[in-house]
Amino acid sequence: MASTVSPAGWYADPSGQGEARYWNGVAWTQSVSRGGVEVESPLNPSQVSIPPAPGTGVAPPVKTQSVGVSSPRRSPLGVIVGVFTVLLIVVLIVVLVNDGDSPAETPSPATDAPAEEPAPADEPAPTEGG
């Protein structure tokens, strides 16, 4: 018995993740049609090579963006300003956090008390009261 090969095209989505999924002639792809718009959606690996059922072909989805959704356009100047702003905020946080722990304000034991000279070895150390 000869097997029929389904030509590449859009067919009813066997996974149910969309209305249609693209069959490339050998395997299902991640391209799915939802509401007439093409999106990417992974398929269970066990279903990838199962060919579409005969007569389940559908019209291809429209390749337009959904209403109200636009891809952001980033200018190099905008990116530079954004990076500069983030760096400025990080520097300010570091300065504010470390401001209270400044080494100039932390007394060190060597500078707080006057240094006492050790008593000479041949003289007895002075005693209190006497």
Describe this structure in words.
- There is one protein chain.
- By secondary structure, the chain is of the alpha+beta class.
- It has a domain at 9-47.
- Helices cover 22% and strands 15% of the residues.
- The chain is built from 2 helices and 4 strands.
- A 4-stranded antiparallel beta sheet has the order 1-2-3-4, with no helix packed on it.
- The model has no long low-confidence stretch (mean pLDDT 78).
In the sheet with the most strands, the strands line up as 1-2-3-4
SSE string, helix = H, strand = E? EEEEHH
The span between the termini is 123 Å
Give the % helix: 10-25%
Rg: 38 Å
Number of strands: 4
Structural class: alpha+beta
Strand content: 5-15%
The largest sheet, given as strand count, sense and whether it forms a barrel, is:
4 strands, antiparallel
**Low-pLDDT sequence parts:** none
Number of helices: 2
Mean pLDDT: 78
- Structural shape: elongated
